[in-house]
Every structure is written in C-alpha cells, then in structure tokens.
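Researcher: I'm comparing several assemblies side by side, and this is the next one on my list. It has 1378 residues spread over three chains. Same procedure as the others: predict the full complex and return the structure.
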Amino acid sequence: MKKKLRTCKRFAAALGATAFAAALWTGPALGADCPTVKDPKGIKTTYPEQLDRPDYEQQIGKPLALAENPLFADRVKSGKLPPVAERVPEEALVSLPYNSCGRYGGTLRGLAKALESGTSEILSWRLVNLVRLSDDLETIVPNVAKSWQWNDNFTELTVTLRKGHKWSDGHPFTSDDVVFYLDDIIKNKEIHSTTPAHWVVGGKAADIEKIDAQTFKLKFAAPYPGFLYYLSTGGSYFVPYAPKHHYMQYHIKYNPKANEQAKAAGHDDWVKYFQLIWHKWKDAETIPAHALTRPTLESHILELETNTERRQLVANPYYFKVDSAGNQLPYIDRQHERFLDQELFSLAIINGEVDQKAQNLGLKNFPVLKENEAKGGYRLMTPPGGPGPTIAFNQTHKDPVLRKIYGDVRFRQAMSLAIDRNEINEVLFFGLGKPQQALPLGLPFVTDADRNYLINHDPDGARKLLDQMGLKPGSDGMRMRPDGKPLTILWEYSVQFGSSEFVALISDYWKAVGVGVNLKEVTTQLTREKAAANDSDINMEWDVPFYPNLISEITLYTPPYSDLSPLVGVPWRDWRDTKGVQGEEPPDWVKRLYTLADEWKTVLPGSKRFKAIGEEMVRINLENMVFIGSVGELPAPTVVSNKLGNVRDWTVQVYNYGRTYPFRADQWYYAN
Amino acid sequence: MLQLLIRRLIYMVITLGLVSMVSFAIIQLPPGDYADSYANKRQQAGIPVTQQELAQMRHDLGLDRPWIVQYGDWVAKILLDGDLGYSWEWRRPVADVIADRLPLTLVIAFSTLAFMYAVALPIGIYSAVRQYSITDHVFSVIGYIGLATPNFLLALILMYLAQQWFGQSVGGLYSPEYQDAPWSWAKMLDLLQHLWVPVVVLGTAGTAFLIRTMRATLLDELDKMYVTAARAGGLSPLRLLLKYPVRLALNPIVATLGWRLTYVISGAPIVGVVLSLPDTGPLFLHALLNQDMYLAGAMVMIYCALTIAGTFVSDVLLALLDPRIRLEATA
Amino acid sequence: MSETAINVAPARSRLKRPEIATQWQLMWWKFRRHHMALIGLSVLGLLFVIAAFAEVIAPQSPGKRNSNYLTGPPMGIHFFDTEGRFHPRPFVYARGSKRDPVTLRKLPVIDPQIRWPVRFFVSGDRYRFWGLWESDFHLFGVEGGYVHLFGTDILGRDVFSRTLYATRVSLSVALVGVTAAFVLGALIGGIAGYFGGWLDNLIMRLIEFIRSLPTLPLWLALSAALPRDWSSLQLYFAITLILAALGWTHLARTVRSKLLALREEDFVLAARLSGCSDARIILRHLLPSFMSYLIVEISISFPEILLAETSLSFLGLGLREPIESWGVLLYAAQNIRAIAHMPWLLIPGIFVILAVLAFNFVGDGMRDAADPYSR
C-alpha cells in the first residue's frame, strides 16, 4: 500500500511538474534588457533599487514596453480586463529586481496561527503604504506616494501621488481617498470616539487639504518629523487611505439611507456596520463575502472567501509596479496562508509545505529546522530579531518596604550583576545571542560601553551592594528585610514574555546572592492587571522599541514605558498628567526624562541636538537601571524555500520594521 | 412509552436552558474578557494596543455590561432571530463558523465510533471466552495501554512519526493541494490518509473501555444457567455464543452508544488542537481561552444537546432492547 | 449435635476451607487468581514507595542544574567495560556535552576511559524529607560525577529525579481527589438512595445536570478563575478539589442504585425494627454490603482523576512550574523539538501509563473478586 501510494505520489508530482513547466513556457520572454540591483547597467536612481517610470524611460531613451501577466491573458482577451498599458499608471514605480527579472507563476505558501494571529508576516509580503523603509533600514523611499515635501518646521507635509494609479477594481486612486480616510473615518466621532493617537499632534488632530487629484497637504499643530518614520515601519500596516468610491455608500455623510441599509443587512446602525467592513488592521476579515469586494492597492488581492482554514490571494491586476523589463509585478500568482497550530509549524516546514516563514517560529526550533534543510528544500537564516527578555522592578511598589528596596538603584545594580548572562545565552539561546543591557534597538548613538553596562557576572559585587544597603543575611543565608521578614520577590510571570526556564535560571542566580524568589506562572491578563494596579514586583512586558519607533513614539522610553502594561512608575505618570493632583512626585531623573522627551518630538531626526537628547536619555535610563537586560538581539530563525529567487537576506526580522516590507516580496519569483 | 418520551423531552429543554446559563457564567469567570485576549494577540504579533482602543472595543462589543444582560441578550437573539450571535475571533456569525466545522466533526466522530466497535467487540468476546489465557492478557494489555495513554501525548507523537515515516502532510484533514479542490477519489484517499491519526488517537481509549465492558458482561452471561442448559442441549459453541449470551451482553454496550458518541465528540478538543484538525474541537478550546463568548456559548449548547440527546438515545435503545425496562416504566 | 465439628478448626486448615473463610479472604483468594491484577498491585506498591521516599531514591535534587550535561540522553549503567572486563560494582561512563557547530544541538560526549562507579547509600544533595526532616541520605549516587538515568532537560535537570518527585504529587492529587469524590459521592448517593422520594428525585436531576455540563469549559474556567496569588500548595489542593467536585456523580449514582435495591432487603428491615438510626443503618449495614462495588468504582476513578490532572496540566491550566507533577513534566515535552531531539522527556508519560494500567488491572481483579461466588 505504501509503495503504491509512493508511486501514486510520484506520478502526481511528475504530472504537476509537467503542467507547471508547460504553463511557464507560455510565459513572457524575460526582458532582454533587465537592469537589476546586482547589475544596474548604468541606470541611475535617486532612491535605492527603484525609480519612477518617466525617469526610467528617459534614461533608457524609449518608452517602456509593458508585458502582460499570463494570469490575466484570458480576461484581457475577452475584454473583461483592460490591457496592461491601461492598468499600470503612467507614473508607475519601476522596481529593480535584486538578481534577475523573474518569471510568472507559482503560489507562495505561508502559515499563520489563526485568522488574525501571527498574520503580520504574510501581510507584509503584499503590503504597500505611502512610503517604505529601504533594505538599508535607514532611507525612507517612495512607494504609493511619488514624492513629498516638508515645510521648514515640520508642521506641513505635501505629498504627491502617482498619475494613473488605480484601485484593484479599476477605479482611480486619488487624494480624495486620503481625505476621505482622515476626515470621514479617523476624525469621525462616531466611528472613532477618540481620535487615534498617531494622528493627534500638539493636542489636535491633523488636518488635510486637497490640492489636486494627485496632491494633498497634511497640517499638524506641532512639529511631527517622525510621521514618515512611523508610516514606513511599525505603522506601515495601517494605510492612511481608503477607497472612497466603495465606502461612501455605507457612510451617513454620503448616503442618507446608510442607517436603513445597515438595518436591512442585520446590523444596529451604520456605524456598527461600517466598523465591520472597515478596520485599520487589514486582516481583520469582518464579513468575508464583503472582503472579496473591497478594493486595495496591495500586490495581491483576496481570491477566495476567507474561512477558518486558509486565506488565498491572487495577483492584483492593477498593481502599480513593474520591473525593469516592463513586466508588471508581482511575479507570483498566488499567496496561500494556512492556519495551523503553532506547534506544528516546524513539522510543516520540514515537510516542505511552506515557502517562507519567520513569525512565531521560535529560536528553540533551530536545531530541528537546521537538520532538515536539505530534506525540506529550504534554507534557514538567522537575521537579528527582537531582544531577549528584560526585567523591570516596580520602583513604586505599594508595599513601602519593598518600594524602598526596589527603588534603591544599588539593589537593581546588584540584581543585574548577579546574573550570569553567558550561561543564559548558552543554555537558552544556543549561544546565538549577545549578552547586553536592556536598550532600544538600532539606536545609532548607543556605544558598546552602554551595551555592556553592568552585564558582567559578579555575584561578589552584588553581595557587597546588598550588604551596603543593610540587607543582612539570616541564618539560612537568605537576606532579611529591614522589618525582619525574609526578602522574597514575588515574581508572577507570563510565559509570553519569558520562558519558565529563563525565570528559573534568573531566580537561581538571585538566590545565590541571598535574595529569595517566589515564582508563579500566571496569565498575561493577570500580569497586566497587576501592573496597571501598581501591584507587581517585576514586569517583563517591555515592547522594546526600535529606533524608528522611538522617533515617532518617544514615550516608549519614559515611565511608564508602556500603555498596555505599565512597567515602572504609574504614579509618576499620574502626577504628570494631572499636574500634581494625583500620583506621586517623581524623582528628578524622571522629570528630566519627561522634559527631554517633549523636546525630542520637535527636533529633526538625525540632527545634532536629536543625538544629544537621545544619548542623554539612554544614559539616564541606564544609570538608573530601569531595565535589567539579558541578551541583545536574538536571531529570528527565518526559512525560505530554495525555489524562490530574488530573495534578499533579511537584515532584521521584526514586526517593528514591517517584517518583509523593506525587502520587497513583490519581486520574488519561482526560479524552478 | 410516549409519556416517557415527552417527559424526557421537557427535561431536556429545561436542562439545556440551565446548562447554557451556567456555562455562560462559567465562561465569564476567568479574569479578563475578549478585549484582553485580543490585545494579547496583538501584542504577541508585536502590534501595540492602547488602553484607549481596548476601552473602545469593550464598549463596541458590549463587554462592559453585566454578564446576565449579555446572556439575556444572546438568548433573546436566538429565540427571536435564530441568530446564534457573532464570533469576534473569526469575525463571522457563529452559525457560519460552526457550520464550517461541524461536518468534519461528525465524520471523525462516526469513523472513530465505527473503529471502536469493530475492534472492541470481537476482542471483548474472545477475551471473555478464553478468560485468563495468554491471548486474553495480551489483548487486555494492548487495550489498556490505549486507555492509559493520554491521547494528546499520542497525538503529537503519531503526527511526528507520520511525517517522518510517511511524509504525510502536517495538520488538518487534507493536504494543502486538496483543500479547495472539488471532491474526487484522490481527495477521498487523502482524507483517509489523514484520518487515521485522529481516529486511532480518539478511538484507543474508548476501545479499551468497550473491550472491558464486553468482556465483563459476557462473563456474567456465560455464568448463567441457560448457557449451561443450551450447551447440554447440544448447540454448537459458536452458534450458542453469538445467538444468546452475546446478544444479551450487547445490551449495556448498545445502551452506552449515546455516551460513546458524546465522549468522542467532547473528548476531541484537545486532540483536535494538537493535530490542528478543522473540526469543532480546537474551535471550542480557542473560543474558551479567548473568551469569545457567543461562540463558546453556542458550542457548549451543542455539546450539551448532544450529551442529552445521547443519554436519551441510550435510554430509548435500552427500552427497546430490554422489555423489562419498558414494563417497569409503564408500571 | 457435634458443634465442635462445625465451629472449631485449626487456623492452618482454614486456608483450604472455603466454606468458613470470611468474605475478605474469599475476595483475596479470587483476586490472587487474576495474574494481571497482582502485577498491577505490585506496580502500585512500587509507585507508592517511590512517592513516599522520593527524596531518598532520587540521586539529585529536582531543581539542580547540571551545566555540563544539557539536553543529555539517558546514561546507561554498565557492568562490562569497553575491554570486556567485568566489574562487580556497576558504573557509568563520564559524560559531557558539546554543541554541534551546524545544528547547534547539544550532543553527548562519552569518555570511555573514565568510569564513575555507582555507590549505594551515599551522601548527596541536601533535602528536607517531606519538608520536615533534613537529611542528605540517598539510595544511590555516583562517585566523581553525576548519573542521569532518564537523561536531562534543557536546563540540565535530572529527569529521573524529577519524575520521582512528580510521582508524589500526581499520586497524592489523585488520592485526595478520589477520597474527596468518594466521600461526596457516597454521602449524596447514600442520602438519595436511602430516603428516596423527592430528595432522590432532586439529587438525580442535579446529577444529570452536572453530567450534562461539558467538562472542558468547567475545568478551564474553574482553573483559570483560581486566584493566582495563592501559594503552590493551595493551588494544588484547589485543583484536586475541583477534580473531585466534578467526579463524584458517577459514584453517587452507583451508591444510590445499590441502596435502592438493598434497602428492601430483610436485614435492613430487621435493623430498623431493632431501633437502629438511619445513619447507623446506612453506615453499618448497607455500605459494607456493597463495599466491593465501591472499591471497584474507586479503582476506576483513580486513573480518571490522574489523567484529568495530566490533561489539565498539559493545557497549562492545572499545576504549573515550579510544582512538578507528571502532567507538568509532560507539558514541557509537548513540542516537536522535544519529540525529535529529547524523546526521553516523555518518560513520565510511561509512568502515567503504568499507573493507570496498574489501577485498571487492580480494579479488574477486584471486580472479579467482588463476586466471590461466581466462576
């Protein structure tokens, strides 16, 4: 039976391969002239790896001949779809492929945990926004937007879109769509009872003015130089435009019958209905049947109604990018996202069922994945990912004795010195991490001295500090609090932020210097509740910001360091927000941080003053040992099928940088 | 008889109502609510969520109302509109989500039942007839190992071995290429290939139980005088065995048919999760963990209805099979 | 009349006189015939000894990390060395671990030249026996190194020692759970069966209701609702009580149906006529007459509760680190990496299977023995 099955399978595979080859054969000939990143053939670009069509045509001295994707050939022939020359904008983006102009065909297979869980990676394959962060992770390059211009003090941003750019249903994409988004969705008080934070600057929501069909101007009440950084990195998932022609029928401002229509569809009112069919998170599927009709600008659009098993997308015939030979992107016909239990990810990968995967893969799976590289037909890379777990002591603890202890910087320094980071790195992270103090990542003004601050393993030094503080060891070697009770840290942790092994190791180190630890594994909900109630001893949920995130959101580096799960200093924030009415007065270093943060928001990123502020903030946070770090950037195992071409190795693999967004998945293709 | 049926039906409806209310309350019990688990997932994906958004979400979903109000709302919707509510997790009506998964649940359940009975009955009979023999012991041990092994443990191991030895595709009931394909022999074959792991895993525990029950009741029967009498009368052993004691011993087996069904259906969640089966099991578990109220509530009602229906079926079958019970009921 | 011929018989020959053996003796003889049950009983005995003396039998403390031997496979005990020489004292080869440069997996490095002899009744890691007496006496240990009979986990903790300590936790959870379920079930079922009427009806409806509740959400909700700032010990007992609270229904039904049948018997009538109180009748006269069935029920619910605790811990809802139970240990083994590279982490599963098997066989034996007058 097994043999028959094998032969059966082989036969099916052979048949499939022949069919595939046949399909490819009818594909277009590769552009004879195909400047790539590897070999630009003299083409000059202002921004790395891409340029606009008019500019390109001028450089090659002739109009660019566009080639049709065979996927659409039938529909074009029967007249259902206009030919490619009418679908691609005049000011299309010409994308220089990394290695070679690819060929059409194939299905990119990916995995996610559930409909809206672990899907940001696959979303980043097809994502577009006004701007994009280039793969050097520094330059902001045009994407949907053709160009932009700030005014002198960064309070006005004029953006120009591309002429001829169309939505995936053929309708023109203009600045009306951006105006609709901001005025009618974001600032509409019924849909958003509070305007989302990223659009509120200087206490006021941003304003938009349409200049012409391709140009609009955003006006901010205070300087907002970090805006484009936000859009090109962590904010890339939230596009600042929406198809007006599609949504206006559901909006009361444009359709007075919107309420009746909503009720007829079975919803309470137009707002509830609207919130179901529009969501800032693209994968929020709402009504699956409706999602099929929703126009987008991305490289792939929904092909089948999403169900609980999978999401399937097909190439967008109106995608605005072409390669340097005139082939309309994307090359890959389809994207297939399968929902699978996380534990089974590595098994599916070894079985060769997945073409690209990094999110939720877990460093612990590295050996199994590495062993099966040849068998599964993929290669395993380890670009830097997020940092290892960090520990923050609650310096404003409710219990006054603990508050005094945790609030004493010597205690925190001792706790940092007691940790053997090399052992942690070896035991938990395969020696792949780098012991490092807790810092935001990618900061250009951080020095090695900063990174190595108090990371050495010095239990004697730790003991000395604790002795200095007056915490005397009792008869069993464990230290006593000033009130006579044994010093025990109640560490309630959630495995989401630190594995139970990590916690066990750290508590061993602390016990070795005489500090008792009571470990308890709890749910994330509980850690957040306790943190918000200022009732936790240790908090580990610091969404460690990357440089671009800090540019747009400096509050992530000032107390309480997180909105969702405050790490340190809830009462200090209350004091600041209520101007002294509630909360407690923070120590001077916190006040200094707040002042610096306020100034940071107004200064141009990259300028001298900007760097100086950043350095000082880093120094203050480090010297006051707000966070105790373990290891720095941990590699994020990333799997790529050997069949894919034009894949550029990731230089960073995190959500905060938009995952694959800087690395241009829309020019990947199946090489064989 | 009819009176019995009607009375049982009324009990069923009342129990269903009570169970749904209690379950709703219990689902609510753990701290946090759907908004929290939503924020959790976002955070896991690295997407920051603010308290402001959470508050908005709670308000939109009506999570800030007391649970009894939410429950009342939901029941009203079911009775008046036939609307089982909306699943926030899947962002579709609950009825759609369940309907997606229910057919496969039934396929797995019935295949498992068939497997269980086909394997257990012959072994049980054999064990009883050859009591204390080596074969009896061997079969007992095999059966019990199935009973004793926690099925989730077995699930992951079998899945791993299936991939390593047979190159079988991972998770779900179909290989990716057949998932959306129209029905064909190849697809059926693919389904069978994937079905054996969950069926074996789910079925082993039930098989052992059936073996034991069959063996025990058959032993009881074989002791009785009529068997000795029939043997003395000269009936061939096999015919004797099958015609009389086995038929009688089947009574309790058949009576528990309903229970077996509900066991398989509600025991499936853990296994389904491990194997990533597209049936209602993982759906249910995730709904509970994420406090997706209406989906979880609807699933509880369905399981409960199945349980009650199962008991009911058992009682009816028993009444049909055993005239004594029928007489007793009318007495 | 020769009364002497009937009553008095020498103790020895009583063994062969089934006519005058007591009910319990008959049961024991019947039980002995069931070979598997005997094996089961001895396995159980062994497990209980392990549970009682875990600290002594385990060569290491369960939390002790061996940084020299991470994710190491089980170390074999040898009598013959590589040159074929026999050593009367068993030994293990010296082992360390080395990281494979490509897959980064820690692989064991065995040095056949260095032998660590196994010694018995040694001094080892200090512990508090049952949290009461301090000692460092261990059943066996190894000189000059370490011994890991079941290998180590990713932190280098000895799986053998952890499994032994986990035996104590798992078995005691099952024991407490079963006892609680038994008490609840016998009490409620007894009341229902004995008094009958509307009380019986009410209790039966309640039982049916509880049985209709799907167990999974109940477990989930109840476990998740437990205040997480309870100490490990409190959580531990709370879990067992939860399991008991859901498990008593089966026993109650059995007790009730038996009582319903028995209370019409003559001996009950006689007891009532002679003035016994209801409680006395239930406890002294009725319960013992179907004690055998009760014991069988208990032996069945033991493995059920054991498996329930294991499942709960697997889902991450029951006991958790740093408490060790079989379920907690298996939870750490529930991933592809463990199955592929560290399959020895699944050994606690074998213990689970053994315990459940043993209980089932004993239960079977008891079931057979409960009716001593049958074939």
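Model: For your comparison table: The radius of gyration of chain B is 24 Å.
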